[in-house]
Design a protein that fits this description.
About 5% of the residues lie in helices and about 40% in strands. The protein is mainly beta. The protein has three domains: about 100 residues, Immunoglobulin-like, CATH 2.60.40; about 80 residues, Immunoglobulin-like; about 80 residues, Immunoglobulins (Immunoglobulin-like, Sandwich). The strands form four sheets. The protein has an eight-stranded mixed sheet with strand order 1-2-6-5-4-3-7-8. Strands 9, 10, 11, 12, 13, 14, 15 and 16 form an eight-stranded antiparallel sheet that branches. Strands 19, 20, 23, 24 and 25 form a five-stranded antiparallel sheet that branches. It is rod-shaped and about 130 Å long.
Length: about 300
């Protein structure tokens, strides 16, 4: 017995919008997000914490305004967006906070949207901060630390920690600038900087101070009953062969309330005549040049 078959019916599936995307893990210490749109010729937008929408540059905002999910109350931010085949890469203008909720949508050429893809930003350790300018001079009394996250910033100078005094957000960079006060030092001193967030302490970046003003002079013994102190200072601050004159180098001593100026020679040696020194007296000394004032030293008369 042969079965009977009905007439064939052709059904055309009508496309109602782009496919639902997949997105890879989003980390709090990276501006880059990747995923697969499972489609071509689509843009991807992101809604973060139901308050901020990220749209592609060059027309993304206009397309978003024509969609059914447009919300005039959202803050709009532009992002870099590119596709290779069906895979997409997003580069954000700033980091996202750990724990933030993110909804992704694809928008096609007819401004139709896909089903949402939901992700949560994974909290990571902070990135390694940088000091603006990439160096620290020996006579600097503050540094500007640059980091793309708002968190605790620590600058360590010779084993002592210093926190920031002020912080500002640079919108063009998407980074925070932390102002940190530090003491003067000498060339070769280590200045370390790192950040701490809820996840923990990030990697440390180290800088070695450069001599810009003279380092603290080296002096001989300060003996009770004597009037002369000798020592050496580094002449620095001229592109020519450094001399006392072209570097503007001066060495000072402070004994009690009286200030003395040393006689400095072009080889860096100097001598100063002070009042007869008494045992137990504390003497301060330092050097200056055209670039500024170096770190003070001190000695107790023996």
């Amino acid at each position: 017995m042969e079965g009977r078959a009905s007439a064939r019916t052709v059904v055309t599936v009508k496309r109602t919008g782009p496919n639902k995307i997949t997105a890879n893990q989003i980390n709090s210490n990276s501006r880059k997000i990747t995923g697969n749109a499972h489609d071509t010729y689509v843009d991807v937008i992101m809604v973060v914490d139901d308050s901020v929408v990220y749209v592609p540059k060059n027309g993304g905002f206009e397309k978003y305004c024509e969609t059914s999910i447009f919300d005039a109350d959202y803050t709009v931010r532009e992002m870099d967006y590119s596709m290779s085949g069906e895979k997409f890469t997003i580069t954000l203008p700033r980091l996202l906070s750990g724990g933030s909720s993110v909804r992704f949508y694809a928008i096609d050429t007819e401004n139709r949207i896909s089903l949402s893809t939901n992700k949560t930003v994974v909290q990571q350790l902070p990135n390694r901060p940088e000091i603006e300018g990439g160096k620290v001079n020996n006579n600097q009394t503050s540094v500007e630390v640059v980091l793309d996250e708002r968190c605790k910033v620590v600058v360590n100078v010779n084993g002592k920690n210093y926190g920031y005094d002020d912080v500002e957000f640079n919108r063009a960079e998407g980074k925070y600038h932390y102002e940190v006060s530090i003491p003067k030092g000498n060339s070769g001193d280590v200045v370390s900087v790192y950040a701490v967030n809820v996840k923990g302490k990030g990697k440390v970046r180290k800088y070695y101070r450069k001599e810009y003003a003279p380092n603290t002079p080296t002096i001989g013994k300060a003996k009770a009953g004597k009037k002369i102190i000798r020592g050496t200072v580094h002449l620095i601050g001229s592109e020519d062969e450094p001399t006392v004159k072209n570097t503007g180098t001066v060495v000072y001593f402070l004994v009690g309330s009286k200030k003395y100026k040393a006689l400095v020679h072009n080889n860096g040696t100097f001598r100063v005549v002070v009042k007869k020194m008494k045992k137990g007296t504390k003497i301060y000394y330092w050097a200056e040049n055209n670039n500024g004032v170096g770190k003070r030293g001190s000695v107790v008369v023996r």
